[in-house]
Protein 1
Amino acid sequence: MMNCKQATELMSQELDRPLAWRERMALRLHNLMCRGCHQYRKQLAFLRMALRSRAGGD
Ligand SMILES: [Zn+2]
């Protein structure tokens, strides 16, 4: 089971590279049980979306 540090590191790496399926699984499992990381991930997803729409890309 990964800890919060590993989870947040994976979440930021996820912005730069596709995660392996076992990384995604471990992260998802952690987020199911960890409220803090769950919220953090939601914020990251929101930020990424905001950045992408500002870039005006496809
Ligand atoms: Zn956590």
Protein 2
Amino acid sequence: MTFQLTEEQRMIQMTVREFARKEIEPIAGKWDRESLFPEETISKMAEMGLLGMMVPSEYGGAGLDTVSYSLAMQEIAYACASTSVIMGVNNLVCEPLLKFGTEAQKQKYLVPLAQGKFIGSFALTEPGAGSDAANQKTSALLKDNFYILNGTKMFITSGSHAKVFITTAVTDKAARHHGISAFIVEKGMPGFSIGKIEDKMGLRASDTTELIFENCRVPSENLLGKEGEGFKIMMAALDGGRIGIASQSVGIAQACLDAATRYAKKREAFGQPIAEFQGIRWMIADMATEIEAARLLTLQAALLKDRGLPFTKEASMAKLFASEMVNRVAYKALQIHGGYGYLKDFPVERYYRDARVTTIYEGTSEIQRNVIAKLVLSTED
Ligand SMILES: Cc1cc2nc3c(=O)[nH]c(=O)nc-3n(C[C@H](O)[C@H](O)[C@H](O)COP(=O)(O)OP(=O)(O)OC[C@H]3O[C@@H](n4cnc5c(N)ncnc54)[C@H](O)[C@@H]3O)c2cc1C
């Protein structure tokens, strides 16, 4: 195993870094304060191929590997966590379409999603089905070549801006998770509407909404995979998604570290820069070390996925460690800023709020621990 990036991976990292530092970082604070969806920037990112990075070029994507995707996510998240979650979810939606979609579904939905012409949403969570994702109440009944969907989805990223939604509904209640099917729903389908737009602590430039299905008519050709495969399809997508959230966490954490070191070198107390105090230096050392550990776990999971090897455990480990790490790092970065860190004048206040959700979405830390423990305990001696 080599820890060296290829020439192409390094080039992607540098190109996305330059773009994010120039075009995103200076305005991310304004987007956060005003809860502005970064529409124009997302269009530019689409032109750069960042919205369908792992989709082959024949389906409109960039045809890159997961390592490159992780590097790009880290750079975008460094500048703006909200923008990175929009990018992450779009890439997340592409995966099941690529793996399970029919050729017609790929042409109609995957190509524009990968090109960034459509924004995508991944709609699994319901008011009563978060960690217990199989406890779905949304139902789908097949009638005259249409599935009739009824129910509510909750916490859906990009809900009010998306054109295409991958969602789930119960087609056979008795079969529990084997009775859940996946569907491709389009904005504007009869009976489909966007509900409440949530008012969040962080990620304020990314919208999070309810989705409401009231006798929503979805053509039967929009069933993704076979009936009863929906849970499997969504869980498989989340394995890859967790690499995305781990990458996002590493990106926010690096931004915290850079902000904290800059500040520590300038701010003086007791006649010297606070960076001279051992208490501050050790915080910086711990932050840098933890970020590096999380980065390596994340890239390892990405590399396994690229090699076609099992990566569920490693993706969960990366997501668990990186998301808990960024919360510790954001705490320390704010501490190093003293009272100024608590003000909105410094970006560390935004990083601190944005970091918080990473241990919650795409599977809470507790759920990641359940996944990891199950796989560790099932290993033969
Ligand atoms: C900003 C944001 C964006 C989101 N975007 C999306 C999206 O785009 N699409 C989507 O489908 N969902 C999305 N979600 C939903 C997210 O995935 C869920 O919030 C998450 O899975 C947790 O579900 P819950 O909120 O219902 O919490 P619950 O499942 O009710 O959990 C509450 C607490 O109980 C713990 N818990 C539950 N079960 C166990 C267990 N077995 N063992 C130990 N502890 C347990 C949890 O870890 C947690 O601490 C988003 C959420 C947020 C906040």
